[in-house]
Amino acid sequence: MAGTTRITTLFLDIGGVLLTNGWDHHARRRAVANFNLEWDEVEPRHQLNFATFEEGKLTLQEYLTRTVFYEDRPFTRDQFWEYMTAQSQPDPWMLDLVVRLKARHKLRIAAISNEARELNSYRVRKFKLDELVDCFMSSCFVHVRKPDLDIFRLALDIAQTPPGQIVYIENTPLFVQIAEGLGIPSILHTDHQSTREKLASFGLETNEGVNHATS
What we know:
The protein contains ten helices and five strands, in the order βαααααβαβααβαβα. It is an alpha/beta fold. The chain has a five-stranded parallel sheet, with helices on both faces. The two termini are 35 Å apart. Mean pLDDT is 94; it is low at 209-215.
């Protein structure tokens, strides 16, 4: 049961909440099939490098060299990058919901996400997230990634908002549990309707009508 404390700030994940995941297991599977790569060769290389990549300690070109272009390929880096970015799609219902909530309740919005720098920057520009989000606590910028507690502590320090005045929307159960352990009320996002109802229980209601956001 949500309390009566006024919520002033939303913490949000990006992938799986506002947009599709940028470069997850499913996206990599599609890329391997599209470019006729060997999953059992490419995926272990990804697993060895993805944390460093998402923490902003590897550039895109360094990541691609280690995971895909460690040998000659019949396609270019630009072609592979274009395919990577094409995996990012918006969730228009969630984008519209957050736009409405921010306007109606004068909320501050902070994104807490595990994303590599180049993908993060592309997604921010492509979907105009900088017009919605006030602060990006992206792993590539702060050099720490979920589930490390420090990324949540850093977000609290930067927001300068008591945990009880925040709601965090996240699609990964473990990350929800970690945030709640820090006293941050959290919503496990599975779909727009249930998240909207849970937000309303925190006093964050919006108008019934929904206009799809566009990319």
